[in-house]
Amino acid sequence: MRILLMGPPGAGKGTQAVVVAEILSIAHISTGDIFRANVAGATPLGLEAKRFMDSGEYVPDSVTNAMVRDRLSHPDATDGFLLDGYPRTLAQVHELEGMLRSTGTSIDKVVEITIDTDEVITRLVKRAEEQGRSDDTEDVIRRRQEVYAEQTAPLISEYEALGILVRVDGMGSVAEVTARVLSALGV
């Protein structure tokens, strides 16, 4: 199964992605993790990505696409994956379609986790305090929400038109949301 998990930053995508990918025995591919690994390793792509991440902007498509293309080529993604944090723009949607078409595959389902913006901000501020993440100041969090609304929300319409979008309420315990996601996937 090839799944995209979407929703605003802080909606619980990362938490759900880990749990759902484990239950389905597919690779969890998080662009946030890919970015942080490249930043920590001070790779050229990582240094470029860091400039954008620190200001709350999206990393340019060229950098993001290169990182994702590389990750999808790993053997653990051959039989299925759950993408968390990608695609975020219409250009990335088309790039991903091209990547998958070249392997004779496509996305099976897109799960949109919905949540209240104020709840998202509260979650991210708490996470920043717990994890010491410099990229999670309140101003940066608010900017990420704006960028999500401007650039990512239109993707929802694209996937809805393809008939592969399902919406899941992200409010509640991790177990409650996981049950909703699995039900939406028909598992």
Automatic annotation (TrEMBL):
GO terms for molecular function: ATP binding; nucleobase-containing compound kinase activity. The keyword Chaperone does not apply. Keywords: Kinase, Nucleotide-binding, Transferase. PROSITE patterns: ADENYLATE_KINASE. GO terms for biological process: nucleobase-containing compound metabolic process. The keyword Nucleotide-binding applies. PANTHER family: NUCLEOTIDE KINASE. This is Unannotated protein. It comes from freshwater metagenome.
